[in-house]
Amino acid sequence: MRLLLLSVALIVSQYLCAQKEVKDFSVPASVQVVKSSGSVKTGTATIPYTAYTGYLDLKNDTGKLIAKVFFTYYRKENETVEKRPLTFTFNGGPGSSSVWLHMGGLGPKRVKLEKDGTAPAPPYQIINNEYTWLDKTDLVFIDPVATGFSQPASGENPRQFHGFNEDVQSVGSFIRHFLSRFERWGSPKFLAGESYGTTRAAGLAKFLQDSYRIYINGIFLISPVLNFGTNDYYVGHDLPRALYIPSYTAAAWYHKKLAPALQADLQKALKESEEFALGAYATALLKGDWMSDAEKEQIAEKMSYYTGLSKAYCLQANLRVDENRFYKELRRSEGLTIGRLDARFTGRDIDDAGEYVSYDPSFSNIDGPFTTAMNDYINRDLLFKEEKAYNIFGNVYPWNYNNVQNKFLNVAENLRDAMTKNPSLKVYVGSGYYDFATPYFTAKYDVAHMFLRKEAQGNVRHYFYNSGHMYYINEPDMVQFKKDVNEFFDWSLRPSTQP
Predict the structure, then answer these.
(1) Which of 58, 100, 198, 380 could form an SS bridge with 193, CB 3.0 to 4.6 Å?
(2) What is the pLDDT of residues 256-265, one digit of tens each?
């Protein structure tokens, strides 16, 4: 009889343990996901993981369903989730899905490209990503509403999600709901955004703190745009023209269009170019027609020296060469254009005349491989079946900037506010030298004009790479990127030494 009771007790105990395990890893009814498993090799280690792919119901304050947000959540197996870092990641656009970071740099699989990032001939392949972040953090890839498979609920106006404030609120709400539904409130939390995703990340840092009291450990700003006043050029607004000059120098250096004294050393050339951009050139732009003809000649000579363009062309452009003209002009004599996302890539237009290029060869290089890879990966590896198309780019325009009427959107101030209230917040700022979408020098300028207190300035670290907007497609930079990311995670999770 005693043996029977012990057996029954053992069975009950096993049942209760099994029930607890089911509770720990069950998915709430408000989350519709497909669960799959896999592993990724990183050097000598193999990381097993579980992937949750599907939709999270986004509801408003009254409990009404307003959207279904598509996401993929990777959780490393055999780890205590409460202590495991969790990174929410997204791309930009606005209107881009998370495909680029998901299949390019962070996830367990990546698109196979040549070592310099050049796409091979189709069909394209997916390979193990030995540089995945899964050894350091669990990952949640978010597709904002109207991108990927994410969509508004039936009868809901999609415009309520398509603007700076609207986007920050909806993605912030997703993060809050995710933390509750997957029981991750106790985890160290990070944000990783690329391009406009860095705008979103900076906005989220403040919004999450102010609205939900969610404090972030670290933010990855990958190819950042924080202040649109330093990035968008208009007649009468000359600041971006000065800040773009070092990018012109970098591109000209790569294509061997600089004088021998500059061509010998990229870092030396960039240092000189930055000094010219903020010094004599910025002063010349401020003077406008107050400059003498002699001064114009002198500045055009220097501008030609640091950009690889002819002095005559610089004068014809009134010392203000639009970047779209630069793509066409730098190698016009050879019948080549250069890329916007990555100036290393070249293309050919229908003719060599005209001012502007007909397409971006650097985007065309990645468009097909990433689109193919994402659609194949979702179906084949993640086992998620969906009839509608996966929107690499969704229709989110016109994007609402009404909250910043009569001035440029400047989320550097949101980030400064968040860092002030959260002294432990660390910020990674990564830039590619050959990126014209979000030039490296504008990022340096924006951070320098956040006017952080001395104690907060040390919480920002800059990293630079010898490629473009998506610097992880260039394998040597991917290797460096992974080293920098590992260092940043270790630094961000180190116990604070602040009093």
Answers:
(1) 198
(2) 999 999 999 9
Rounded to whole angstroms, the Cα distance separating 431 from 464 reads 5
DSSP 103: I
Give the SS3 label for residue 364: helix
Residue 7 pLDDT greater than 50, yes or no = no
Alpha helices in 144-195 (DSSP H): 164-181
Mind listing the pLDDT tens digit for each residue in 357-395?
A: 999 999 999 999 999 999 999 999 999 999 888 999 999
> CB burial class (10 A; 0-12, 13-18, 19+) of residue 139?
buried
pTM of the model: 0.93
Task: Give me the amino acid identity at 263.
Answer: Q
In the block, residue with structure tokens 């050894």: 135
Cα distances (Å, whole numbers) of residue 203 to 146, 154, 227, 410, 489: 19, 28, 12, 10, 21
213, 188 in Cβ contact below 8 A? no
CA–CA distance, 68 with 222 (Å, rounded to integer)? 26
Q: What one-letter code names the amino acid at 386?
A: E
Is 406 exposed, middle or buried, given 0-12, 13-18 or 19+ CB atoms closer than 10 A?
A: exposed
DSSP state of 373: H
Q: How far apart are CA 443 and CA 433, in angstroms?
A: 11
C-alpha radius of gyration, the chain, whole number: 25
In the beta sheet, which residues pair with residue 140? 73, 88
Specify which residues 429 forms β-bridges with: 221, 462
Q: Are 30 and 57 in contact (CB under 8 A)?
A: yes
Count the Cβ atoms, other than its own, within 10 Å of residue 342. Answer: 28
Mean pLDDT of 461-468: 98
| Residues 285 and 296 sit within 8 Å (Cβ to Cβ) | no
Structure tokens at 296: 């114009």
* 400 contacts 164 by C-beta, under 8 angstroms: yes
On whether the CB atoms of residues 223 and 120 are closer than 8 A, the answer is no
How much of the chain, in percent, has pLDDT values that exceed 90?
A: 86
DSSP 384-452: ---SSPPBSB---PSPB-GGGTTS--BTHHHHHHHHHH-TT-EEEEEEETT-SSS-HHHHHHHHHTS--
Side-chain-facing half-sphere of 330: CA atoms under 13 Å? 33
The answer to whether the beta carbons of residues 54 and 32 sit under 8 Å apart is yes
φ/ψ of residue 39, rounded to 5: -150, 155
> Token match 């999450």: residue?
208
For residue 134, give the DSSP letter: G
Cβ distance 48 to 41 under 8 Å?
no
CA distance 133 to 488: 12
Q: Tell me how far apart the alpha carbons of residues 94 and 163 are, in angstroms, rounded to a whole number.
A: 9
Measured between alpha carbons, how far is 36 from 112 in angstroms, rounded to an integer? 22
